[in-house]
Amino acid sequence: MNPHIAPVDLAKSYRLINHGPTVLVSARHGGVDNVMAAAWCCALDFAPPKLTVVLDKATATRALVEHSGMFVIQVPTAAQLQLTHQVGTLSLSTDAGKLATSGVQLFGMDGFDLPFVDGCAGWLACRLIPEPHNQQAYDLFIGEIVGAWSDTRVFSGGHWHFEDADPALRSLHYVAGGQFYAIGQALRVQESKE
Amino acid sequence: MNPHIAPVDLAKSYRLINHGPTVLVSARHGGVDNVMAAAWCCALDFAPPKLTVVLDKATATRALVEHSGMFVIQVPTAAQLQLTHQVGTLSLSTDAGKLATSGVQLFGMDGFDLPFVDGCAGWLACRLIPEPHNQQAYDLFIGEIVGAWSDTRVFSGGHWHFEDADPALRSLHYVAGGQFYAIGQALRVQESKE
Question: Which residues does the UniProt record annotate as the domain Flavin reductase like (chains A, B) (predicted)?
Fold first, then answer.
């Protein structure tokens, strides 16, 4: 495993996605692993930490999530631009070699029977909170974050350090049609003197 | 009104928030206008376009949304860093002069009885889709986007043009504790030759 990976305090785990990155969703069921890209993933609560993610009915990953009740949300990096686009474009339903074609390498974390994508900047292991109406009507899935880790070269002490890290570790923010932005300049508010 | 503002095709309106910016939520009811910041806002569907936003029970804006059934999601800019942090910190419940203190200027759009925040890069007028369980259990609100506009200096033709625009027009991405990032470098995937 990447020696830079360290656990993130669950109370601060929402910060891995608070700035709105495009994420990779991975899941495992019945001996099948899959990974997809999702731009529509968002923090939902602090304690216990929760998030939402939209999983279209056409995705193979959705079925794995529904059957296993578990998934991983991970934050891919600028170095993974092509990988992110490919796992968001190819489908396991029609391309059994999708993960290999996309260059995805999976690894494990002790205590979690889940596929984690190597090379990301952060990982959130999630337990599905079943909400059948949301899932059916809106493709909206709610997960409780039960494990969190980061690449400490870019996220440590509960904060991102994009400004001091290799630009290849920056998070990706998708618009449409192959158009992404990397996260940019650090801005800090001036605290009032009151 | 800012002469650079133009309507955005509703089919492409999700692109104003697809890259995960922190947003401002505004609403109006009974002669009261309010604006709050929200990092937890996310696209939910393409057609009709929908989004989710998390509105804590402690916010005054939430009550305006619940009573009027309408709200605006807008994308503030790097130039609005302090304003965004202030409307996310002050509460109308305890500070009646919140909007003036924060430097918020409101304007109107024909056909919408809603307060729009001047100086933003994009605006999404939304109709609340009532989902009482989500609202009560998760503070999660679903809106259908019924009107969309952008500042054409930074979003036009259905795409952001951060790379060619004034950096002051870049979107803001909040982490925690006054730590924001502006959106950064444009990245484009290499289309496969297949």
Answer: 15-166
A123 touches chain B (CB under 8 A): no
Count of pairs with CB atoms under 8 A, one residue in A, one in B: 159
Q: Which residue has the tokens 């989710």?
A: B52
Say if CB B23 and CB B61 are below 8 A apart: no
Report yes or no on B191 lying in a domain. no
Give dist(CA B180, CA B63) in Å, integer: 27
**B194 pLDDT above the threshold of 70:** no
On whether any CB of chain B is under 8 Å from the CB of A21, the answer is yes
Residue-range definition of the domain harbouring residue A31: 5-182
Q: What is the pTM of this model?
A: 0.96
Q: Tell me, yes or no, whether A187 lies in a domain.
A: no
Q: Does residue A103 fall inside a structural domain? A: yes
Per-residue pLDDT for B191 more than 80? no
From chain A, pick out residues whose CB is under 8 angstroms from the CB of B174: 18-19
The owner of tokens 């009740």 is A69
Which domain CATH number covers B47?
2.30.110.10
The answer for B 27-46 residues in CB contact with A (under 8 A) is 39-45
Chain B residue at shortest CA distance from A188: B179
Number of structural domains found in chain B: 1
- A101 located within any domain: yes
B115 close to B83: Cβ distance less than 8 angstroms:
no
Q: How far is CA B145 from CA A39, B106, B135, B187, in A?
A: 18, 20, 18, 28
A141 touches chain B (CB under 8 A): no
Give chain B's mean pLDDT: 96
Please report which confidence band the pLDDT of residue B153 belongs to, taking 50, 70 and 90 as the band edges: very high
